[in-house]
Amino acid sequence: MTGTVLLAVGGNALVLDGEPGSVARQQERAARFADQVADLVGDGRQVLVTHGNGPQVGFILRRGELVAPDASVEGLPELPLWLAVADSQGGIGHLLAVAVDSALERRGLDSRAVAVLTHVEVDADDPAFALPTKPIGAAMTSSTARARTAEGWTVIETAPGVHRRVVPSPRPRRVVEAEQIRALVHTGAVVVAAGGGGIPVVRAADGWHGVDAVVDKDRASALLAASVGVDTLVLVTGVDEVSVGRGTPRQRALREVDPVELRAHLDAGEFPPGSMGPKVESALQFVADGGRRAVITSLPRLRDALEGRSGTLLTARDRPAPPTPTALSPASTPGEPMITLAADPFPYVFDPRRVALLCIDFQRDFMEAGGFGESLGNDVSRLRGAIEPTSRVLEVFRDRGWPVIHTREGHRPDLTDLFPAKRDRGSPTLRIGEDGPMGRVLVRGSAGHGIVPELAPVEGEVVLDKPGKGSFYATDLETILRARGITSLVVTGVTTEVCVQTTVREANDRGFESLVLSDCTASYFPQFHRSALDMFCAQGGIVGWVATSDALLTALRTTTHEEVPR
Ligand SMILES: Nc1ncnc2c1ncn2[C@@H]1O[C@H](COP(=O)(O)OP(=O)(O)O)[C@@H](O)[C@H]1O
Ligand SMILES: NC(=O)OP(=O)(O)O
Question: CA 274 to CA 243: how far, in whole Å?
């Protein structure tokens, strides 16, 4: 989402270390932050806000502990940490949403703020549960720290003479509501989400359960930013820039860094694990996941930093911005609307002028009883689940007038294009070219060679006949795509590990960017389906991206493209 920023603000932005953190002070600070947000909205940016909760969740817990130290006061249930996180998310979400709404109103902007209660999935066996590291609550003196430790808290000294309670902080694996948050951001709302790092949950056989932990909000923010596909992640904190050699005569601020340099400073121990370390790691993670840039700066310098005049700016210089136009495609128009959707291994971004839908080999010979697939001993019913989601995607492409290309595997009636090696492979009950219940098996023109009626091509759609597994081999597919300036392929079809996989690899070597829709592809062997999908997006997307049809359709629904000429 070009122009979209995720602003992650620390819990300390509302409550400073050592102060009691009155509600009025928090409102005052929320208003200052909201003014900056409204300025960005006024500049035409879409804004997603996340926030910490360290001080606030500590206050909530302490309140309960003071009233019911032994959890036995009648009518007052003990408050688990995960529920305190949910409470803090509600309270801070309210403070920020109301402040942002008021600031937007003052400027006459008709955008609204919405706070979303957000859950973050963590691993139940994350080693962090055995090693509390996350500071929460107000800072304490040594004597208070000793008293609390005696009550069972884990307390550490975060700075000389400054003590904080620490709790487990597992790594966030997934933001459960990422897709809904993305859709809301697209409406132009200022969305407040993943507060306090999100309510930590684990998935069990009977559903989701809260777990006692506080997720680091910078890590959760980087994950949310990548899942939603925002353009810029901004980690707003107490300093204008990140420094190396901090507190020494060699201190210098980092202004523009690339991942290699920043990683080297991190590995050299320049950033403490309890403060700047997680921010730097999160910035690096966002960029590694496909994010364009990450900025670390202070609230007063926010706007300057977004315009490159302040802050520490991390960009992925080693990766060209997607999509990559091919040499033969027409020049792209600056500022053209792009579509972004949540995908593995990182968000897939495409230009709607340069996309085509590939429907690979949805043929009766493979999908119906009596065809070639069944003659090889396969259960053809395994492929049929891909029909319904593919028909929904097909409908959207047709509605928008975007190109659709169907392929069919098959041979000339005289079988002059059939290698003996292919004909004789396996031990089929019917060989290619022999008479079956749907005519000659995999021979062009026979009924079995045709595409299933649910996904049948309509007038104007390209239908390619191919003799091999790959759609580029011995066909004019590449010429057709280049002539139309297509760079991005949404791939559906059967089977995942054979014709789909071969085609996606061929496409990748030719510079096309493939998004494989996991539920619109299928295999006779579920484990091969899963493995092929894993292989596509392994090693940072070695051959392409994988997403569900729902992720694509939601992204299309929430982006207006009526105005996009083809
Ligand atoms: N190398 C560094 N460069 C800049 N700031 C640093 C560095 N190391 C530690 N810090 C401190 O870390 C703070 C940010 O961490 P923290 O206060 O935990 O974040 P948050 O703003 O999310 O509450 C900065 O305000 C600064 O005081
Ligand atoms: N959850 C979290 O990281 O909060 P702070 O930013 O307030 O530490």
Answer: 16
Residue 40 to residue 49: CA distance in whole angstroms: 12
Q: Does an H or E element contain 226, and which? A: helix 217-228
- Ligand 1 atom with the shortest distance to the CA of 239: 25
**Residue 132 in tokens:** 């509390």
**Rounded distance between C-alpha atoms, residue 34 and residue 46, angstroms:** 14
Q: d(Cα 282, Cα 25) in Å, to the nearest integer?
A: 29
Ligand that lies nearest to the alpha carbon of residue 168, given by its number in the listed order: 2
Compute the distance between CA of residue 116 and CA of residue 82 in angstroms, rounded to an integer. 16
Spatial separation of the C-alpha atoms in residues 213 and 199, rounded to whole Å: 9
Buried residues in 517-545 as b, exposed as e (16+ CB within 10 A): bbbbbbbbbeeebebbbebbbeeebebbb
The single residue of 359, 499, 520, 537 carrying the catalytic annotation is 499
Q: Which ligand is the nearest neighbour of the Cα of 248?
A: 1
Give the pLDDT band (50/70/90) at residue 17.
low
Our CA angle for 275, 299, 313, nearest 5°, is 70
Q: What is the DSSP string of 338-365?
A: -EEE--BSS-EEE-GGGEEEEEE--BHH
Pocket of ligand 1, beta carbon within 6 A: 10-12, 52, 237-239, 242-243, 246, 270-272, 275-276
Residue 74 CB-density burial (10 A; 0-12 exposed, 13-18 middle, 19+ buried):
exposed
Total-model pTM: 0.61
CB 262 within 8 A of CB 280: yes
Q: For 363-451, where are the alpha helices, taking DSSP H only? A: 364-367, 372-375, 387-400, 420-424
Half-sphere exposure of 229 (CA within 13 A, CB side): 27
Closest residue by Cα to residue 191 from 208, 175, 212:
175
Helix (H) or strand (E) holding 295: strand 293-298
Q: Which atom of ligand 2 is nearest to the CA of 85?
A: 1
pLDDT in tens, 412-464: 999 999 998 888 887 678 889 999 889 999 999 999 999 999 999 999 899 99
| Encoded tokens for 535 | 């292989």
Residue % of the chain over a pLDDT of 90: 67
Find out whether 100 and 113 touch, Cβ atoms under 8 Å: yes
- Cis-peptide, bond into residue 345, ω within 30° of zero: yes
